[in-house]
Amino acid sequence: MSDALRMSELYAPTLKEDPVDAEVVSHRLLLRAGMMRRAAAGIYTFLPLGWRSVRKVEQIVREEMDAIGSQEMLMPIVQPAELWQQSGRWDVYGPELARLKDRQGREFCLGPTHEEIITATVRDELRSYRELPVSLYQINMKFRDEIRPRFGLLRGREFIMKDAYSFHADQDSLKEHYDAMAGAYGRICDRLGLEWRPVEADSGQIGGKVTTEFMALAESGEAALVYCSCGWAANVEAAEAVAAYTPIAVSSQPLTRVDTPDVKTIAELAAFLGVDPAHTVKTMAARSETGTLVFLALPGNRELNELKASHIVPGLELLEEDDFAAHGIHRGFLGPVGAPEGTLIVADRTLKAELAWTVGANEVDAHLTGAMPQRDFAVDVWADLIVAEPGDACPSCGGALSAARGIEVSQVFQLGTKYSEAMGATFMDEAGAEHPFVMGCYGVGITRSLAAVIEQHHDEHGIVWPMSIAPLEVAVLPLQVGDDTVSPVAEEIARALAAADIETIIDDRDERAGVKFADADLIGWPVQVVVGKRGVAEGVVEVKTRASGLRESIAIADAPGAVAKLVQEARDALR
Ligand code: ATP
Ligand code: MG
C-alpha cells in the first residue's frame, strides 16, 4: 500500500496550447499532459506521469513473456562492430545504424536490434540439444537514426522495445514458440485496450520468411492494410494482389501502331484512344544489381509494389529521368513489345488475362494496340507486381478486400538459421552432430504502443486512458482546498482508496475548479471524484468515469467502496 500522490508535489507541467510541430494526437497530448518533453528530434525525456504509463506497458509485456516461459535479461546498447561484421549486417544496414568509435578507434554501434549480441552470447555456451529450446527477452532502449523521425513516440530515433529471441533444435519447436509468442502479443494488445489485427507482412532486412505484424488500427498509422471479413489481413507492402479484372470481350486483334503525339501518362493515353486505363500497360524501367535493364509491366490502372519487384530482381532500382537516354529508351513510350535487346521483361500476372493490350511502342509519340502476350511479346518472369487495393479478391477466400490504416506495434519472425549460420552458433544433436540453431525473434514497441493507445483513446479534452496503463487510476478533486468541510472529506476518500491499493492522486493545488477539471481530463484520470462545498453539505461527492463521461452522485461514506468497484471492473476488463 502506498499513499495517494499529491498534485501539488507532482512534476507534471501541463500546457494549455497545442505545441507546434506535433502532427498527431498522441504526440500533442503526451506533451500537453506533461508526460514527456522533446530532447532532440525523435528523442524524448519521460516525465513522472509518462514514465508511470511506460512502466505499466512494460509490466504487461513482462507478465505475458514470463507466462510463456521467456526469461528476462538485459543486453548492452553499445555493440561491437565485429559482431555485425560476422552477421554481414554492418555493410547492409545503412545510415539508420548509428556508428561510433571508442578512444582506441574501435568501432561500435548503438543497437537498433539485438540479434547479433544474443547470438554471440549463447553461441559458445548453449551447446546441447538437451538445453533447447531457450527463449530470452529484454526491455531496453533502441536507437535507429530514422530518416524521418516524427509523430512523437510513434517513430522515434531512441525508443523502448521489448525484444525476445528464441533458439531451437528444429523448425517444429520454433513454430510452437512462435505461436505462443503470437498468442502473447495478441493478449498484450488486448490488455492495452487496443483495437488490433494480426497481418501478413514483409520480413524486410531482418531476414526469415514467416512473420506477422500486429497492427493497432488508426487513421494516423503509417502502414496501409488490406483486410477481408474472413479474417485475412495483410500489410499492403506484402499483400498478395489478386486484381479484380474484367477482360474486354474480344478474342484477338491485330497489333496496330498508333501515333500518340505527346501522350505520356496512362490518363492521357486512355483519354486519347478512348480505352479503359485497366486495358493499357504501364511499363516502368529499372536496373538490376548487375546493371541489366528491366521493364516492369503492369496494368495501367495499378501501382507498382516496389518491394515485391525488388524480391524478384535483387537490387532493383527504378531509372531516373537522366538514365533513359543512356539506354536509348523513351519515357512515356515504353512497352514490352520491341524492348531493347537483353531487357529483362517482368510482367504482372494480370497481363496474362488480356488479349488486346495498349502498350508503348518504344519510340517517341507512338503506342501499339492489340498487343498480345506470347504472340507479340515474351515475358521473362510472370509475377505479382502490383499494390493490393480495396476491391481486390481476398487471397484466402475470394471475398472483396477493404482498406484500413494501422500502427505496427509489434512483430514476430521465424528467422531460421540466418544468424546462427552466419555467426557459427551451433548445438550438438543426440548423435553428436553440429547444427545451427533455428531462431525466432519477436519485438514489441513499448513506447510506440503507448502512443498507439492514445491515438485510439482520446477526445477533444485529452487522453482517455484504459485503466491498465493510466498513470494513476483515480484522482480526487477537492474544489475548494482551503475549505475545512471540503478538504478533510477529499483527503479521507483519497486515503481510503490508497489503502485499498488503488493508485490515487489528490489535486490539492489551490486552483480554480475549471483548471482542475481541464487538467484532469487532459491527463485523463480514468475515475475522478469531485468533492465540492455544496455536495459535501448534502453529504455527497460526484464520481465521474472519464471513458463514458458518466457522473454519479454518491454518499460520502459509500464513495471509496463505489470507486474501488469501478476501478476493479475496469481492471478486470483488461486482464
Ligand atoms: P517500422 O516498419 O515501423 O520502421 P520495423 O518493422 O522496422 O518498424 P521492428 O524491427 O519490427 O520495426 O521492431 C519491432 C517494434 O519496434 C516495431 O513493431 C515497433 O513497434 C517498434 N519500433 C520500430 N521502429 C520504431 C521507431 N522508430 N520508433 C518507435 N518504435 C519503433
Ligand atoms: Mg517490424
Description:
There is one protein chain. By secondary structure, the chain is α+β, with helices and mostly antiparallel strands. Strands 4, 8, 9, 10, 11, 12, 13, 22 and 25 form a 9-stranded mixed beta sheet that branches. Strands 1-29-28-30-31-32 form a 6-stranded mixed beta sheet, sandwiched between helices. Strand 28, helix 12 and strand 29 form a beta-alpha-beta unit. The protein is globular and about 95 Å long. The model has no long low-confidence stretch (mean pLDDT about 95). The site of magnesium ion has 3 residues, from strand 22.
Number of helices: 15
* Radius of gyration using CA atoms only: 30 Å
Q: Which ligands, by name, code or SMILES, are bound?
A: adenosine-5'-triphosphate, magnesium ion
Number of strands: 32
Q: What is the terminal-to-terminal distance?
A: 21 Å
Q: What percent of the residues sit in helical stretches (DSSP H or I)?
A: 25-40%
Given the helix and strand composition, which structural class is it?
alpha+beta
> Major sheet, described briefly?
9 strands, mixed
Poorly predicted runs: none
Q: Percent of residues in beta strands?
A: 25-35%
Mean pLDDT: 94
Globally, the shape reads: globular
